[in-house]
Design brief:
The complex is a heterodimer of chains A (about 325) and B (about 350). Chain A is of the alpha+beta class and about 325 residues long. Chain A is built from 8 helices and 13 strands. Chain A folds into 2 domains: about 140 residues, 2-Layer Sandwich (60s Ribosomal Protein L30, Chain: A), CATH 3.30.1330.10; about 160 residues, PurM-like C-terminal domain (Phosphoribosyl-aminoimidazole Synthetase, Chain A, domain 2, Alpha-Beta Complex). Helix content of chain A is about 30%, strand content about 25%. Chain A is globular and about 65 Å long. In chain B, the strands form 2 sheets. In chain B, strands 4-3-5-6-11-10 form a 6-stranded mixed beta sheet, with helices on both faces. Chain B is globular, with a radius of gyration of 20 Å. Classes of the chains: A alpha+beta (about 325), B alpha/beta (about 350). Chain B: Keywords: Iron, Metal-binding. Chain B: Belongs to the HypD family.
Chain lengths: ~325, ~350
């Protein structure tokens, strides 16, 4: 059965859709009340974030738009040092969408939310004309300890930069699906609770931390370098990229520095904390390929450099435009 | 045995006469910038980028034509990503799209066939740009259009070939001592394709791969073969003397050599490919698109693409011209030399 405009009318069909697809999967004591707004408890410093997800294809190796919509918001909360608590989701569904697809997405959202320890407490559904597309917005709230101070402006001379794993898997997966290229690359889409909690529980002072999503590592590190008025100097040989993604990039003319990821983060810590932090990340879920990739220096404020494999050096700029495959 | 370290050491300490080598292929330009090769070369070795980026050499009137086609009722222009951002005399395809023009981005020309078959109410025009590497794909595309009698898909071609433009670059008092010959082009054409040029200008042409090591090797070979009119194939795993015969045959069936207009250079005889007369009904009006114009009079893309100046010597570079506000095609394209000098902070 497919979604029709009637499912967005606000009437019986809408109510049936919500009950059958969403309420069933997302049920919890707050959502079950089905009031106009969710009433939640909270009396400390809050982190809030929102993100919209428009990926095509909606189902891809390693995940789907539902899984992604939870991971994206959960990871954004985690990067501020927050413990994710509550999440809302808004669906914009094009007519023609298979209800079974919607059910699969709702199921995967429920599963990921459970794994990430976040409660889906409110939602909305709209149907628009179209041809089977699904767009999801999620907003999340997390609790943050007063003592936590993670900011892109905290990087200092001598600090160490740690990347939590291989670059480019998500980007390569989506592009492979769009280009009908067969390979075994899977999206890295994952909630990074375990990794961040391990660092915080073990009293690692995380100075700056970001999930490496759109714009890639290059863009994130430029934001750090600019906000902290420092230089970030990387070693190309230390940057983890799987062989398959490396080859994929060579064929299409892509640069892993600018490829999107959905389950990777970069953290800046002091030199003293760096080895312990690396070990903690490596022993966390999704962190087995983590590596120290560079350090913070004072050479030229706002700049990111990489020392290349052959002994050269180049600047890593932010991403301009879209990361598109080359044309010849 | 010569090791990589020996070569690196030689290239760093080289103290002979000043040498300038040109890489013609945009992918080589990208690889040189990304690997930071120029940082480990002696100051006496200069690398310049040639006219091998298809976006950078496309004239404004070609973009204008695409823009006007996209605004026609029932016509949709399909293009690769880089072409979206290049401005013609007034607008880019992105501008046209924002003003209601129908433009779609595709990753492969073959995708347009499926799109055209699914949407028969629209006429599609594919922006077929590229060099010898890309033309065989357009041949396959055309073959399928003809075999499947697809009525709503045509090509607007701006196809270039290498030899005559390299010949032109050599003829304009250029300081070039040798060429890193384009690797992808050579896969199709074979390395012998450059023999005549090597002999005529008495300089080496080295066919190279795209890894930093391949390029260091190529530069080393160019120094050692200085003033020798020879072609060296250092990419033998993919490139043969005679090239890919099947691909060449496909191209010969549908395309013929023609005079072509190059941005900043002008028209050069036999430097392009166009559809043969019997296939012109699949052409969306590619003839006579020769007019060019500059967005900004100070733009030096014309000098940059023939290696007369480095991007950093252009008065607009990093001032008004950046990847966000490109004043010329070399800053737009991800294979353009200005773009790479900018994002990699290349000094030379």
């Amino acid at each position: 059965m497919k979604i029709t405009m009637a499912h967005g009318s606000g009437g019986k069909a809408t109510s049936e859709l919500i009950q059958e697809v969403f309420a069933k999967e997302f049920e919890n004591e707050i959502l079950n009340r089905m009031e106009d707004s969710a009433l939640v408890k909270g009396s400390q410093k809050l982190a809030m974030t929102t993100d919209s997800f428009v990926v095509t294809p909606i189902v891809f190796p390693g995940g789907d738009i539902g899984h992604l919509s939870i991971c994206g918001t959960v990871n954004d909360l985690l990067m501020s040092g927050a413990r994710p608590q509550y999440l809302t989701c808004g669906f914009i569904i094009e007519e023609g969408t298979e209800i079974d697809t919607l059910k699969q997405i709702a199921k995967s959202m429920a599963k990921t939310a459970k794994a990430a320890g976040i409660m889906i407490v409110a939602g909305d559904t709209k149907v628009i004309e179209g041809n089977g597309g699904i767009y999801i917005n999620t907003a999340g709230v997390g609790f943050v300890d007063e003592t936590i101070d993670i900011s892109s402006s905290n990087c200092e001379n001598g600090d160490i930069v740690i990347l939590s794993g291989n670059l480019g898997d998500h980007h390569a997966t989506i592009l492979s699906s769009r280009l009908s290229i067969e390979n075994t690359i899977k999206s890295d889409c994952a909630p990074l609770n375990d990794m961040v909690e391990n660092l915080l529980e073990n009293k690692i002072r995380i100075k700056a931390m970001r999930d490496v999503t759109r714009g890639g590592l290059g863009t994130v590190l430029n934001e750090f370098a600019t906000a902290s008025s420092c230089t970030i100097e990387l070693q190309e040989e230390k940057i983890p990229v799987s062989d398959q993604v490396k080859s994929f990039c060579k064929i299409l003319g892509l640069d892993p520095f600018y490829m999107a990821n959905e389950g990777k983060m970069v953290a800046v810590v002091s030199k003293e904390d760096s080895e312990k932090a690396l070990e903690l990340i490596r022993n966390s879920k999704y962190g087995e390929n983590a590596a120290i990739i560079g350090s913070v220096t004072q050479e030229e404020a706002g700049m990111v450099f990489v020392n290349t494999l052959i002994g050269g050096k180049r600047k890593i700029d932010i991403l301009y435009g879209e990361g598109l495959p080359r044309i010849c | 045995m010569i090791t990589l370290e020996t070569i690196k050491d030689y290239l760093k300490k080289y103290d002979g006469e000043e040498l300038t080598f040109m890489e013609v292929c945009g992918t080589h330009t990208a690889a040189i910038s990304q690997s930071g090769i120029t940082e480990i070369l002696s100051d006496k070795i200069r690398l310049v980028s040639g006219p091998g980026c298809p976006v950078c050499v496309t004239v404004a009137s070609y973009i204008d034509k695409l823009v006007s086609l996209s605004m026609e009722e029932n016509t949709c222009v399909a293009t690769f990503g880089d072409m979206l951002r290049v401005r013609g005399s007034e607008k880019s395809l992105n501008d046209a799209k924002a003003s209601g023009g129908k433009v779609i981005l595709v990753y492969s020309p073959m995708d347009v066939i499926d799109i055209a078959k699914k949407n028969t109410q629209l006429n599609y025009v594919f922006a077929a740009v590229g060099f010898e590497t890309t033309t065989p794909i357009y041949s396959l595309m055309l073959k399928q259009i003809i075999e499947e009698k697809i009525e709503n898909l045509k090509l607007l071609t701006a196809l270039k070939t290498m030899p005559k433009v390299i010949d032109w670059v050599c003829s304009v008092d250029s300081p070039i001592n040798g060429f890193i010959a384009p690797g992808h082009v050579s896969v199709i054409t074979g390395s012998d394709y450059f023999k005549e040029l090597a002999l005529k200008w008495n300089m080496p042409f080295v066919v190279s791969g795209f890894e930093a090591i391949d390029l260091l090797n190529a530069i080393y070979a160019l120094i050692n073969y200085k003033d020798k009119g020879e072609v060296l194939n250092l990419y033998p795993a993919y490139v043969t003397d005679k090239g890919n015969k099947a691909a060449q045959k496909q191209v010969e069936q549908y395309f013929t050599s023609c005079k072509s207009a190059w941005r900043g250079i002008g028209q050069i005889e036999d430097s392009g490919m166009q559809l043969k007369e019997e296939y012109l009904k699949y052409d969306a009006g590619s003839q006579n698109l020769i007019e060019d114009s500059k967005i900004n009079e100070g733009c030096c893309c014309d000098k940059v693409i023939i290696g007369t100046i480095n991007p950093t010597q252009c008065p607009l570079f990093k001032k008004v011209c950046s990847p966000e506000t490109p004043q010329g095609a070399c800053m737009v394209s991800t294979e353009g030399s200005c773009y790479h000098y900018y994002i990699s902070n290349r000094k030379r």
